[in-house]
Amino acid sequence: MNAAQILNRALQLIPVVLGVTLIVFALMHLTPGDPVEVMFAGESGVSEEDLERYRQELGLDLPLPIQYWNFLAGIVRGDLGMSLVQRQPVRDLLLSRMPATIELTAAAILISLIIAVPAGVLAAVHRHSAVDQVGTVGALLGVSMPDFWLGLVLIMLFGVRWGILPISGRIPWGMEPETVTGLYLVDSVLTGNWAAFRASLRHLALPALTLGTSMAALTMRVTRSGMLEVIHQDYITFARAKGLSGTEVVLRHGLRNALSPTVTVVALNIGVLLGGNMIVESVFAWPGLGRLVVESIYNRDYPVVQAAVLVYAMTYVTMNFLADVLYTVLNPRVRF
Amino acid sequence: MIEPVLEVRDLKTHFPTERGIVKAVDGVSFALFPGETLGVVGESGCGKSMTALSIMGLVPRPGKIVGGEIRLMGENLVGKPERELRRLRGNRMAMIFQDPLSTLNPVMRVGDQVVESIRIHYRDLVSGGNGTTRLPLSWRRSRREAWERAVALLEKVGIPAPAERMMAYPHELSGGMRQRVMIAIALSCNPAVLLADEPTTALDVTIQAQILDLMQRVQEEYGTSILLITHDFGVVSEFCHRVMVMYAGRAVEAAPLDELLTNPRHPYTQGLLDSIPRLGDRTHVVRPIEGTVPELHALPPGCPYCTRCPLADDYCRQVEPARFDVGPGHWVACHKAVPAGQPAGQPEEA
Ligand SMILES: Nc1ncnc2c1ncn2[C@@H]1O[C@H](COP(=O)(O)OP(=O)(O)OP(=O)(O)O)[C@@H](O)[C@H]1O
Ligand SMILES: [Mg+2]
Q1: Which of A114, B60, B179, B251 is the most buried (most CB within 10 A)?
Q2: How far is A244 from chain B (nearest CA, A)?
Q3: ipTM confidence
Q4: CA–CA gap between residue B304 and residue B245 (Å, rounded)
């Protein structure tokens, strides 16, 4: 795929993105309750004129189309409004929570790949064998086990019974490495702070394992069926007829052909996770986007919730796009 | 006497299935001599491809070679460990397939695929075939040399602008070019035996002729022995020295080309020849063979062809015919083809 085709595909995203903003905007104005009243709920000594002044300040008195336009212009400028509760720009709130979610996403995806790709390939190559059956049962367990339950079981075992891993937060208070990227693992390596590296790795272990294993289930099944389809192809027989060993055939000729569906699933998983996983982040008190959303819903902090929905949708759309691009890189035959 | 390069004796390749044992190849014997082309013909499903795959040791699961011998340059391949078979594949024996588009890896550049096949056996290549005398060259050097050799090979099989074609993906080439690439890969290590499974069926007629011509030139230059599997008697009569006819997993007749075309002895061979239209001969009546091939897991006890044979009698339905020599290099497995005076039931060695 060349640059023009990628650009073309990217332009196709514009209507999708506009649609998302429209829905988010509509949600903002369909939810019952006046945001300004929510903002000052429970505070005494706020007059009706004060509220009106705030509405004007926030542009909430303008006609809806103009408000939508301002909303779009705000997004383009990176202005997502003010948090009603924290009284700071929503953008800053999101940015402060983003690194935690990115770190968790990366670790979870890594774990899921380490489990899923070898397991899926082995299951396909040794179809109907014990390996395959163990894999199938494992995947079934993984898919049907709710994340919160798996998280709690891991907490019970590693945190409570054996007491070998921390069960909440990103790092003990006061141990944070100097901020460079906001990703503790990266920052601690960059600043040579090995104590912080160890601590954040240990904190990351259980939430990443929870998300990683539950995602591994689906990824493994997709890898298995991708591989199964590939190993009956003529080019696999031909590769063996050339004199390659079974392992070489799988690694050199099988994997790249088999992995296209896996890549798509993984990219979509990343898209989902980057928006923040509310359940796992809550169970492990992980200070990421998902937990921010949960907190904001409790506090009726609508601008934050809506901005988070927007981010969620955007990352999903973007990852979908990247999956398509990667797909064509893996398959020279595919054209848009 | 000339030794055959490849000798197959009583080969049996069976597939255990839920409905019974499918005897895809059941007691096939033949020999392939140096520089010779042996055509293998027969209807779809009669076990031609499985015979070739058995020789390569690539029978797909759950299929298995359950009996017989395959001697390649005197060495029996049946029961050989996979590791040793692997060294022979692509090296002493190579195979090409019907559809070059599905046989080349779609996501790998053509050049890389040729280079790969050269490098697999690189040690054997630089040491002249016995694989022991010289150490492997450094990786980088061997890669560059293999690349140059690949370009030369593509040129040899008649691909124009080979250096540029090396960078193409299979789908970017025409069918004929792809088949040439596959032949280049198969020939990269000068195999003694080339198993060609319907190499021209997927191509149109003019390209077919070019590919056959290419194979013929290769054969003349290197003395490669070719087992050519095909449906097409046109291809057979152009290209083969001898022909073997298969039916329902068995070999039923074999003869030198002219002998088989002019004096077919098995009713099935006669039926096959009658069922091809002849170009320019309006008086020839095309007569398709009645009926269908019996299911391979439920063959009748006697001659496998008895359900369709116009000459079949009770004896045919009960006793399996053995091979009888009916001429020089010509044998047939049919009770009705036994010349008068020869005692029936006395098989001769082929
Ligand atoms: N996986 C399998 N399981 C069961 N039977 C099989 C399997 N693969 C092949 N067979 C049987 O083996 C027989 C021989 O197949 P083969 O591919 O050798 O036929 P062929 O002569 O090459 O036919 P064609 O001209 O269509 O290529 C077929 O009749 C088929 O029923
Ligand atoms: Mg076949």
Answers
A1: B179
A2: 7
A3: 0.87
A4: 13
* Cα B314 to Cα A311: distance, rounded to the nearest angstrom: 82
Residue in A240, A253, A330 closest to B105 by CB: A253
Q: How far apart are CA A102 and CA A185, in angstroms?
A: 11
Task: Please report how many Cα atoms fall inside a 13 Å half-sphere around the Cα of residue A101, on the Cβ side.
Answer: 28
Measure A260 CA to nearest chain B CA, in Å.
11
Q: How far is it, in rounded angstroms, from Cα A64 to Cα A177?
A: 45
Return d(Cα B54, Cα B35) in angstroms, integer.
21
| B104, B186 contact by CB (below 8 A) | no
B227 in Cβ contact with B195 (< 8 Å): yes
Q: Inspect the interface and report whether the beta carbons of A243 and B91 lie closer than 8 Å.
A: yes
Interface test with B, best of A231, A236, A242 (most B CBs within 10 A): A242
Q: Give A302: exposed, middle or buried? Use CB within 10 Å, 0-12, 13-18, 19+.
A: buried
* A325 vs B40: CA distance, rounded Å: 46
Q: Angle between the A90-125 and A302-330 helix axes, to the nearest 10 degrees?
A: 40
Give the gyration radius of chain A's Cα atoms. Answer: 24
Cis peptide before B62 (omega within 30 of 0): yes
Closest by Cβ to A234, choosing from B87, B91, B97: B97
User: From CA A264, how far away is CA A327, in angstroms rounded?
Assistant: 7
Note whether A244 contacts B120, CB cutoff 8 Å.
yes
Give the Å distances, CA to CA, from A290 to A46, A220, A301, B56: 33, 25, 14, 57
Give residue-wise pLDDT tens across range A109-130.
999 999 999 999 999 998 888 9
- Interchain contact, B106 vs A332, CB within 8 Å: yes
**Which residue in A has a C-alpha nearest to residue B85's C-alpha?**
A243
Low-confidence spans in chain B with pLDDT less than 50:
125, 127-137, 139, 344-350
The residues of A whose Cβ lies within 8 A of any Cβ of B are: 232-235, 237-246, 252-253, 256-257, 330-333
Q: Name the band, by pLDDT with cuts 50, 70 and 90, for residue A331.
A: confident
Cα(B94) to centroid of ligand 1, in Å? 20
> Which residue, judged by its Cα, is nearest atom 10 of ligand 1?
B24
Q: pLDDT tens digit string along A176-229?
A: 888 889 899 999 999 999 999 999 999 999 999 999 998 999 999 999 999 999
B83 contacts in A (CB within 8 Å)? 245
3-state class of B342 per DSSP?
coil
Q: Which ligand is nearest to the CA of B230?
A: 1
Highest mean predicted confidence (pLDDT) among A16-20, A145-149, A194-198, B84-88: A194-198
pLDDT of residue B140: 52
CA-closest candidate to residue B245, choices B37, B4, B39, B14: B39
Confidence of residue A12 (pLDDT cuts 50, 70, 90): confident
Across the beta sheet with B330-332, the strand order is: B93-96, B193-197, B225-229, B37-41, B242-247, B250-256, B330-332, B324-327
Beta bridge partners of B8: B30, B70
The domains located in chain A, with CATH, are: 97-330 (1.10.3720.10)
The phi-psi region of residue A23 (left if phi > 0; otherwise alpha if psi is between -120 and 50; otherwise beta) is alpha
Which residues, including other chains, have CB under 8 Å from residue B33's CB and lie 6 or more apart?
Answer: B2, B4, B5, B225
Give the rounded distance of the alpha carbon of A276 from its chain centre. Answer: 5
- What is the reported pTM? 0.81
Cα(A216)–Cα(A23) distance, integer angstroms: 32
Nearest to B86 among A245, A257, A331 (CB): A245
